[in-house]
Amino acid sequence: MQINKDNLPIFDSHAHFDDKAFEGDLSAVVNEMKANGVVGVINNAVNYTSAKKCIDLANRYDIFYSAVGVHPEDLYDGEDFNPQKLIPFIDHPKTLAIGEIGLDYHWDTHPAEVQKKWFKDQLDFAAQVNLPVIIHDREAHNDTLEILKKHKPNGVLHCFSGSNEMAKEILKLGMYIGIGGVVTFKNAKKLVEVVKELPLDRLLLETDAPYLSPEPFRGKRCQSDLIYFTAERVAEIKGITTKQVLEASLNNIKTLFNKIK
Known about the structure:
Helix content: 25-40%
Strand order of the largest sheet: 1-2-3-4-5-6-7-8
Distance between the termini: 29 Å
CATH superfamily: Metal-dependent hydrolases
CATH architecture: Alpha-Beta Barrel
């Protein structure tokens, strides 16, 4: 299916192609994405095992990069964060960040205090290895912002779901804001207001593939070339061209994740 008729370069700042959803046809999906202008994808690990898988994908496919970390839903009960589990991946030339890390109070899988400790420890680790961070924040805005203000990391708040006021605080920290397919949903009024005021030089486009497909593919498996529809919606909101949005996101990704050639 031809999506990106102008063949504009698309870089997906956040995806999960190690997910089971792609087990049967990943090579075909990668070829289709490349045909639709995808030049890069950052696969985000959710645990130690996933980190190894993301590195393997980066070795196998030229457009794939990796972020390594432990997601708040995937914490190891009764254990503290063990940086030695990630150290083997840090020097890989395609490891761009520590992620996906953060807080998730929606599912309440792990106590808030446990989540906060893992989050802080992984932020400290990112600072030690001099890598940016990719942050997950779901229904934990106050605690997330408090921790970020203290640690002041270089990074992005992925799949942003906070208020305009929170967005301004994130920007004050020098961080970026990730915008995905949710902005195309009819009920995304709050996010639309955030996008209206979000400076282009702080915007990162993402999919969270295989999740959160933009309209008109909502509910179907997501892949990175569908970012084109997210970029179209952002362009409409901001009164600029889709090309300007995609170029801005690509430039910002290269600035934040400076290992990208």
